[in-house]
Design a protein that fits this description.
Structural class: mainly alpha
Number of strands: 6
Order of helices and strands: HHHEEEEHHEEHHHHH
Distance between the termini: 19 Å
Helix content: 25-40%
Number of helices: 10
Largest sheet: 2 strands, antiparallel
Radius of gyration: 17 Å
């Protein structure tokens, strides 16, 4: 992970930003048309074409994201046990809606659907041996696997939505686009790692709105989707990183 990026993230945290609350709008992931009737789109991405200068590997990106989400230093084991005031949990601030989508959890009432925070009153499915919130918080390997699964879901969702407009993520990679972010002009290069981080903050639907309509959205605490796409853009990331998560998990020991 880039040392400079780590320092920047830590400074932002010290300045009082609600870094750990940036993830909570991910309930936008749940769409009625989740199971698309269209054939799955195959996208081949070359990491060398995503940006002129790489910030690091996919793992470096995940470490930077963990710092941004929790405000805790990379490598701090407390990242995995972190819980914010809205009860988003873990290194990557998972919410009920995302873990429902990934098959770890079941609930009829959850944040974004009848609840004003993540209550964790539903049922855990025992996927990967996780049968409770406490066990999830104390399972770093499972959290690392789950974030890779989540990124795979984001990638598929974004492509499914774009395909209805005759486009794919490939149409936007390496494009330099300028957005009006709360009155400030921000020119950024679109990369896969940035797109995935933007989806983690605001959901695939909002990423598509940004790409198609230049529509910038913020979370409830004022964190802009453009900020995430820029901050986490430029890391070497391919679709293989999103599906080949098990080998990465094994490397953790």
């Amino acid at each position: 992970m880039s040392f400079t990026l780590l320092i920047i993230c830590q400074l932002l945290y010290k300045n009082g930003n609600f870094l750990s609350l940036s993830y909570h709008n991910n309930f936008l992931l749940m769409r009625n048309n989740f199971k698309s009737s269209q054939p799955e789109m195959v996208v081949v991405i070359s990491p060398k074409k995503q940006s002129d200068k790489s910030k690091g590997s996919f793992q470096d990106m995940l470490e930077a994201l963990g710092v941004r989400e929790t405000g805790l230093s990379s490598g701090d084991p407390n990242q995995y046990r972190f819980e914010n005031p809205l009860s988003f949990i873990g290194k990557y601030q998972f919410g009920e809606i995302l873990l429902i989508r990934l098959g770890y959890y079941k609930a009829d009432v959850y944040y974004g659907r009848g609840a004003n925070k993540n209550n964790w009153r539903g049922k855990w499915t025992n996927k990967n041996g996780i049968d409770s919130k406490l066990k999830f918080l104390n399972s770093p390997h499972v959290q690392e696997e789950a974030i890779r699964e989540a990124f795979g879901v984001y990638w598929k969702d974004i492509n499914d939505i774009l395909s209805k407009q005759g486009k794919s993520i490939n149409n936007y990679l390496n494009q330099k686009k300028t957005f009006n972010d709360r009155g400030k002009s921000r020119a950024i290069t679109i990369t896969l790692s940035g797109i995935l981080a933007g989806a983690h903050l605001r959901g695939p639907d909002k990423v598509v709105e940004l790409l198609l309509k230049d529509k910038v959205s913020d979370d409830e605490f004022g964190t802009s989707i453009v900020e995430y796409i820029e901050m986490f853009g430029g890391y070497d990331t391919t679709t293989k990183d999103l599906s080949n998560f098990q080998s990465s998990i094994n490397k953790l020991g």
